[in-house]
Amino acid sequence: MAQADITQTGAAASAMPARKPVAGFILPLVIFGCFAAVPLLSAFGAESYLLGLVTRVMIFAIAALALDLLVGYGALVSFGHAAFVGIGAYAVGILASHGFGDVLISLPAALLASALFAWLTGIVCLRTRGVYFIMITLAFGQMAFFTASSLAPYGGDDGLTIHARNTIAGFELLDNERFFYYFSLLCLIATYLLCRALVASRFGRVFRGSKENATRMATLGYQVYRFQLTGYVIAGMMGGLSGFLLANATNFVSPAYMSWQRSGELLIMIILGGAGTLHGAIVGTAAFLLLEEWLSGFTEHWKMIFGPLLVLAVLFVPGGIGGIGSALLRRWRRG
Amino acid sequence: MSTALFIVQTLNGLQLGVLLFLIAAGLTLVFGVMDFINLAHGVQYMLGAYLAVMFYALTGNFLFALILALGAALLFGLLLEFVIFRHLYGRDHLDHVIATFGIILFLNQGVKFVWGAAPLTLPMPEMFSGSVALMPGLLYPVWRLVIIGSGLAVAILLYVLVTQTRIGMLVRAGATNANMVSALGVDIRRLFMIVFGFGAMLAGFAGVMIAPILSVEPGMGDTILILAFVVIVIGGIGSIRGAFLAALLIGLVDTLGRSFAVDILRLFMAPSPARTVGPAIASMLIYILMALVLYFRPSGLFPAKGR
Questions:
Q1: Interface size between A and B, measured as CB pairs under 8 A
Q2: pLDDT score recorded for residue A201
Q3: Average pLDDT over residues A151-175
Q4: Where are the beta strands (DSSP E) in A150-307?
Q5: What percent of chain B has pLDDT over 90?
Q6: Is B153 an 8 Å CB contact of chain A?
Q7: How far is the C-alpha of B161 from the C-alpha of B232, rounded, in Å?
Q8: A86, A131, B27, B262 - which has most CB atoms within 10 Å?
Q9: First vs last Cα of chain B: how many Å apart?
Q10: Looking at residue B121, what is its pLDDT?
């Protein structure tokens, strides 16, 4: 056992200097570079279709990043994360229906509303651990879902149509598909950088430490609960940002945005990408949504292919797509 | 709210409760013994209903359809265990979630592929299709009483199995400390296979029994699965007694809440807001209950000992 540990550490150490920059720095640059290049490529083909699809990927990637912050770094497996997306989207929709259609109002409102919900529910949820945490976040997610379904003045079950995208300080900039695309990309990059900074900070070290051993962190004198609550609120606000963009992208809000299936899909996206690596969350989201789009192009029964693919992925590639990547990299190094 | 209506709704709540128990029993044991999160338990319920429809079409007899569907559900559960689940024990919970979610996607689409997307119906057995007068002016469908009765019978059977037999003793021990049981020389994997197959069969049984009342359609297992998870979490994971009491509690709270929320709110609210808020509160009631229970008793009402 000790022998194996030593060799493993040795291998990791020898791979470290060369590998760390790839995973830590170049890979995210490549990912964001690809996103930035999509509008240039799409000029050759079906532009609005491709832009719309990739915008969707970026929007969900923001929510996935936030969830990865909780799951991958804090072991807080939230099964109600779609609620934040929905709350952000409803903030936009409700304000728009009252004539407030400017980003300067709706974005802060979306962030505040989701932060408030995260704070209130976090106080209760964080009292529990493990599977119970999964279930209690699900419970709050369902409460948000049913609240949205009962908002009769705002469409109830049928959802709410937003008549125009938000203006930015009075200018109708978001109506331009390319502008909206880059606006979403900017939000994604900002979220990513914030997550990275958080994870690397002292805050992040306590947060990650309480994933490994909450009791030890408490003994060291940290109030784990406060750190986790802060993390939960930040992740909730990022979910709200994603909802804000989603409402603008689709010009529509509906309770379906908050359904537990959506929360499940977000979880699958980050597990697929490899929970605990931030770029993995983005890759996983892209893989999930693009695969869904691609398979549904073949047959209406695409889920019969997609489902088994998920099962195979779990059985044979633990660690998700990120796992495949680093396994390939290791093999390539060995020659 | 009249007494008759109250009795009818209470019985409906009991019926939902025993149905939930049939599903939650397997879920909580699988979870308790093997620490395995099986989201696909809900599709086993759906599959039970579909199989019953299929075997009914072949045999034209409800009893034969029931027996054949139970056998098929058992075989299918064992097959799932053999092909997929046994490779996932000891893995992270997230891996369980993703794999079983994949199975849900496949089977929900699979039944659409095989039987079509339109809802199907399973005719009730002739002799139970009528209503019975429980008291003057109160008619109640016999089939719902049959569901309640058979659910209670299964609960008693399970109780005897779990508390009086050797295998039940092993299951209880496994739910408390699987490693210890395994170290004492019990083949915990075989034990689990039995528990799993049995759980799948119970879920299938619930599906067959409810099929004559509800329409049989793809995705019918998804909502009930979430309810069953609520039940096992409130009851305490791994505890059959907890699952039984929590199932009845959830069944009653949900059904009575839905029927009387508006009336109760009207007592201290204007009628029109009560009509809007009532249904929302009614749908949320069980989740509010779960949040409260977990807040005050983080490991459920009747946790299996040693957890």
A1: 126
A2: 87
A3: 84
A4: 160-161, 252-253
A5: 37
A6: no
A7: 19
A8: A86
A9: 43
A10: 87
* Eight-class DSSP state of B87: G
Identity of the residue in B105, B110, B237 whose CB atom sits nearest the CB atom of A131: B237
Please, what is the end-to-end C-alpha distance for chain A in angstroms?
27
Residues A246-261, mean pLDDT to the nearest whole number? 91
- The answer for A 43-102 residues in CB contact with B (under 8 A) is 71, 77
| Residue in chain B nearest A149 by alpha carbon | B280
- Rounded to whole angstroms, the Cα distance separating B71 from B187 reads 24
Question: Per the CB < 8 Å rule, is B113 touching A304?
Answer: yes
A18 vs B: CB within 8 A:
no
pLDDT of residue A212: 76
**φ and ψ of B79, to 5 deg:** -65, -45
Report the distance separating Cα A170 and Cα A276, nearest Å.
Answer: 40
> Phi and psi dihedrals of B104, rounded to 5?
-60, -50
* Separation between Cα atoms, residue A323 and residue B273, nearest integer Å: 53
Nearest chain A Cα distance for residue B275, angstroms: 10
ipTM: 0.82
User: Confidence class of residue B52 from pLDDT cuts 50, 70 and 90?
Assistant: very high
Of A217, A87, A57, give the one whose Cα is nearest residue A147. Answer: A87
CB atoms within 10 A of CB B159: 14
Residues with Cβ within 8 Å of A40's Cβ and at least 6 positions away in sequence, in order, are none
Q: Which chain A positions have a beta carbon within 8 Å of B97's beta carbon?
A: 264, 267-268, 271
Does B241 lie at the interface with A, CB-CB under 8 angstroms? Answer: no
CB-side neighbour CA atoms (13 Å) of B176? 12
Q: Cβ A135–B229 below 8 Å, yes or no? A: yes
| Measured distance CA(B237)–CA(B176) in Å, rounded | 10
The pLDDT value recorded for residue A14 is: 39
All residues of chain A having their beta carbon less than 8 Å from the beta carbon of residue B104 are 307
Report whether B300 contacts B236 (CB < 8 A).
yes
CB contact (8 A) between residue B279 and residue A150: yes
Residue identified by tokens 């912050």 is: A69
Rounded Cα distance between B10 and A324, Å, is 54
pLDDT at A3 over 60: no
Distance, CA of A207 to chain centre: 18
Average predicted confidence (pLDDT) for chain A? 83
User: Strand, coil or helix: what is A301?
Assistant: coil
Contact between chains at A143 and B288 (C-beta distance less than 8 A): yes
- The three-class DSSP label of residue A71 is helix
E-state strands within chain A: 160-161, 252-253
DSSP code at position A256 = G
3-state helix, strand, coil in chain A (%, to 5): 80, 0, 15
DSSP-derived secondary structure for A2-35 = HHHHHHHHHHHHHHHHHHHHIIIIIHHHHHHHHH
Beta strand pairing call for A252-253 and A160-161: antiparallel
Question: How many angstroms separate the Cα of B304 from the Cα of each of A133, B26, B242?
Answer: 18, 15, 8
The encoded tokens of residue B19 equal: 């149905």
Closest CA to A38 of A244, A238, A168, A177: A177
The Cα-based distances of B210 to B66, B159, B236, B247, B254 in angstroms read 12, 23, 26, 16, 17
Closest Cα in chain A to B295: A124
Task: Name the least confident of A31-45, A70-84, B140-154, B212-226.
Answer: A31-45
